[in-house]
Design brief:
0% strand; 296 residues
Length: 296
């Protein structure tokens, strides 16, 4: 009997099976055609009508592959997996990330839904790192940069300013394993750390009391996403801190708890964390090739 491939297993998942094999193939073909245009620098505003099954299938592959991520199990720094388990897990999450990225990146980015677009960017950043789609992700960000990261922000909306900076930060720290090209990421971290102690209390004073608790949890979530990205940035630059996996896991656990199952953020957490683990592994492999004392 032939052993099913990782894609076969994902395609048998209940969420994916809702879409017929024919519609799945058509959706992937559509997504790849959109990505080809994006990578070629062609306009993405005049695309044909989005096939109705692309949106549910994109979410279905995220769900199916996320079960293999298993944040509280296999993804935990304390988990001990055999080589075979590691290989099976990697195969399933990589092909799942590939499919989810192709479909999610093909969805239109509406100017009036910027917050949703920023959340999607975080998800795509993690999917791209795990699914080997970093080149396509860079092209996607360039294509939508005017909407995602406009030149001017409403400075009274600290919640939006912070979200923008956190998302932009993650797009930089997940782009590969080497320490080069991270100056803007350092600037983003510095700006958040410098401005947050003053701007956050001021912003919260203007929030409706009914929404204050929710907003505090939301800002707490963004704070720990910032701290996790900062840990990864420092590791890419200096090979420190030690046991960075544990520190990343702690920040993501706190961020997930504070988000309280917010569906806009939930999927992103697992993929950002897995992407961060990949960068740590790649950077660690680089450090092991360096002579003693030359990591910095």
């Amino acid at each position: 009997m032939t052993t099913p491939t990782a894609l076969d297993t994902l395609d048998r998942h209940w969420a994916v099976k809702v879409v017929t094999p024919e519609d799945r193939a058509a959706a992937i073909q559509y997504g790849m055609s959109v990505l080809s245009r994006v990578c070629a620098g062609e306009p993405v505003t005049d695309l044909e009508t989005l096939p109705e099954f692309v949106v549910p299938l994109a979410g279905a592959y995220v769900i199916a592959a996320s079960e293999w991520l298993d944040f509280e199990g296999a993804a935990s720094p304390s988990a001990i997996l055999s080589s075979e388990q590691e290989e099976r897990r990697a195969a399933h999450i990589e092909i799942g990330a590939d499919r989810a990225f192709i479909l999610t990146a093909a969805l239109p980015v509406e100017p009036g839904e910027r917050v949703a677009a920023l959340y999607r960017t975080m998800l795509l950043a993690g999917l791209a790192q795990v699914g080997h789609k970093l080149t396509e992700f860079r092209a996607w960000v360039r294509a939508h940069e005017a909407i995602l990261f406009p030149a001017a922000e409403d400075e009274h909306r600290w919640d939006l300013v912070l979200l923008r900076r956190v998302v932009e930060l993650w797009t930089h720290v997940l782009r590969g394993a080497g320490p080069s090209g991270l100056s803007h990421a350092m600037e983003l971290v510095a700006s958040i750390r410098e401005e947050r102690p003053l701007r956050e209390p001021e912003f919260l004073r203007g929030v409706d009391p009914v929404d204050e608790t929710r907003m505090r949890f939301y800002l707490f979530t963004l704070f720990h996403l910032t701290e996790a990205a900062t840990e990864l940035l420092l590791f890419r630059l200096h090979g420190e801190p030690e046991r960075v996996d544990n520190r990343l896991y702690s920040h993501f656990t706190l961020a997930r708890d504070a988000a309280g199952g917010d569906p806009r953020l939930d999927a992103s957490f697992d993929w950002l964390y897995e992407g961060a683990r990949r960068v740590v592994a790649q950077r660690t492999a680089q450090l092991e090739l360096l002579p003693d004392g030359s990591a910095n």
